[in-house]
Amino acid sequence: MKSYLITGGCGFIGVNLVKRLCARGDAVRVFDNLSTGRHEDAASLGAQVIVGDVRDARAISDAAKGADVVVHLAAHTRVIESITDPDLNFDINVVGTKNVLQACRGAGVQKLVFASTGGAILGDQKPPTHEEMVPRPISPYGAGKLAGEAYCSAFAGSFGLNTVALRFSNVYGPFSYHKGSVVAQFFRNLIQGKPLIVYGDGSQTRDYVFVEDLIEAVLLAEQIDTPGDVFQIASGRETSLNELIALIRKVVSDRDLSIFYEPARRGEVLRNYARIEKARNTLGYEPRVPLEEGLHRTWQWFTAAERAHSAKV
Question: pLDDT tens digits for 10-35?
């Protein structure tokens, strides 16, 4: 049994990770400011929940004491909001990550897993993206995550902290009701009877990975000694937004889909999918959930959550 600290552990990915760790008997502590996540989601699974903000260096240092492994998920994740408020994004994603690294160093943490991103860091480059590409972020969000990776590498080189950065692609799955990415947004709109909004003509592409596959990658990365290294975690498949909508039509065949097309937004990458050979060869990572199956399981969760909410009301 290990002791884990998960920053942002009440959020979408965090709750799925908490569920996996608590089920196998690990001690799990969550550090979250509850700006999007819910206290009860992590606490009900058996985690200790500490309410705090990664911008508070003392609070995160106290939370890290006694942890063997820290998984740093807390972040300001919305690309468009990073453009409208780059200062907030910097404070959370750069200063906050530095605070977490300092806390890990002070607490003698054995391993830090940093949640990064591929598309926003590498920018609008010809896919498939991979770890050897020169980063060219086109949004403050991408720049902040790149700075976080750099600090992970610096703390590995300067202080011997065993860090690893995982560049997540577009993650979807259960517990994503507050997530701003496209699958969660589309499903929320369907639940609420609203149209699906597409910015651009729908030809833009992404690499969608089911959250259970992502959690497996986090656990594999924790076990490998790769100080300061970076890995792309994705499905390795390119899917256009129009193709995604076609799959969603099949999954929610009992619902009417209204689709509105709006002008494309600045700062968003047109095409993105990743090569995952490095994660396969070094971590033993292998995504297993096909997109249609993952969408079906995610939709089942959304509808069950809506029924539970309606029953309470």
Answer: 999 999 999 999 999 999 999 999 99
d(CA 113, CA 137): 21
DSSP 195-253: PEEEESSS--EE-EEEHHHHHHHHHHHHHS--TTEEEEES-S--EEHHHHHHHHHHHTT
The mean of the pLDDT values for the chain is 94
Residue 22 lies in a domain: yes
Separation of alpha carbons 120 and 136, rounded Å: 8
Tell me how many domains the chain contains.
1
> By C-alpha distance, which of 66, 73, 77, 158 is closest to 104?
66
Query: Looking at the annotation, which residues are catalytic?
Result: 141
Q: What is the CATH number of the domain that holds 45?
A: 3.40.50.720
Q: By residue range, what is the domain housing residue 8?
A: 3-172+209-236+271-287
As a whole number of angstroms, the distance between CA 313 and CA 306 comes to 11
| Residue 188: inside a domain | no
25 conformational bin, left if phi > 0, alpha if psi -120 to 50, beta if neither: left
Are the C-beta atoms of 208 and 169 separated by less than 8 Å?
Answer: yes
Contact 91, 54 (CB under 8 A): no
Is-above-0.85 flag for pTM? yes
